Amino acid sequence: MSGKVWLIGAGPGDPELLTLKAVRALGEAEVVMIDDLVNPAVLEHCPTARVIRVGKRGGCRSTPQAFIHRLMLRYARQGRCVARLKGGDPCIFGRAGEEAEWLAARGVSSEIVNGITAGLAGATACGISLTLRGVARGVTLVTAHTQDDSAPNWPALAATGTTLVVYMGVARLAEIQQGLLDGGLALTTPVAMIENASLPSQRECRSTLQDLQVDAALFQLRSPAILVIGEVVGQAALQQALSFAAQA
Ligand code: SAH
């Protein structure tokens, strides 16, 4: 009998943003494989599990995906319950689909547990409502960095009129800026750059599409960070409500 693999979203960093289901799954796990960007504080929910760090910060120079696959399979075939902990949501730039498919092809069942993705948590923590009646009728989550090094169609994204939340964009600011301006966004379009969202080390830099690069350099923006681009960034409603709540 092969064991089971949980593919769990650990949220953006704040351990309180873990779901109850993630806590239950961690409690069942005998082996926990933890990715980069997962706050190790969440391991308090699996005190007796064997923990394997598979990210760059764990000392390995980014564990190859093939090795991670094989490791999951090996423990599952030993009948163990394996938890694979990923930052944010496992299905948002997190490869959970690939891993689930790979395991299924080898007869191992897996279950995905959602987590709060960095873009959502970062925006809220900075008082930004990603959709807002009369301002933005939608939100697009997009990565600036792909394995094949191709760029998203920035001009087309500009034309959607949705708030853009850009992941993995820190090293691509020039390209993002140019593409969105080419697509017709105004130079004055507000941008928030949010580093280490939801952690005590969170930092936020407000800028515009025009000044994006200069401001990011002055701020010394570092990964992990997300960019929120769109008129909702300039709206004060949620910020006022949040500061009011903080005072109360
Ligand atoms: N599955 C993750 C995303 C993994 S891709 C999720 O749903 O959040 C890694 C990228 O996510 C980083 O380059 C950065 O753009 C973003 N990211 C992850 N954690 C973050 C955090 N705490 N603050 C800001 N950005 C973060």
TrEMBL record:
Name of the gene this protein is made from: cobA
InterPro entries in alphabetical order: 4pyrrol_Mease, 4pyrrol_Methylase_sf, 4pyrrole_Mease_sub1, 4pyrrole_Mease_sub2, CobA/CysG_C, Siro_Cobalamin_biosynth, Uropor_MeTrfase_CS
A molecular function (GO) term: uroporphyrin-III C-methyltransferase activity
Domain (Tetrapyrrole methylase) ranges: 4-212
Pfam families: TP_methylase
PANTHER family attached to this UniProt entry: S-ADENOSYL-L-METHIONINE-DEPENDENT UROPORPHYRINOGEN III METHYLTRANSFERASE, CHLOROPLASTIC (PTHR45790:SF3), SIROHEME SYNTHASE-RELATED (PTHR45790)
Gene3D superfamilies assigned to the protein according to its UniProt record, in alphabetical order: Cobalt-precorrin-4 Transmethylase, Domain 1, Methyltransferase, Cobalt-precorrin-4 Transmethylase, Domain 2
Alphabetical UniProt keywords: Methyltransferase, Porphyrin biosynthesis, S-adenosyl-L-methionine, Transferase
This enzyme's EC code(s): 2.1.1.107
Family to which the UniProt record says this protein belongs: Belongs to the precorrin methyltransferase family.
CDD domains found in the cross-reference section: SUMT
Taxonomic lineage: Bacteria, Pseudomonadati, Pseudomonadota, Gammaproteobacteria, Pseudomonadales
SUPFAM superfamilies (UniProt xref): Tetrapyrrole methylase
NCBIfam families attached to this UniProt entry: cobA_cysG_Cterm, PRK06136.1
GO biological process: methylation
Biochemical pathway: Cofactor biosynthesis; adenosylcobalamin biosynthesis; Porphyrin-containing compound metabolism; siroheme biosynthesis; precorrin-2 from uroporphyrinogen III: step 1/1
Entry protein name: uroporphyrinogen-III C-methyltransferase
Lineage: superkingdom: Bacteria
Organism this protein belongs to: Pseudomonas benzopyrenica
Family matches, as PROSITE patterns: SUMT_1
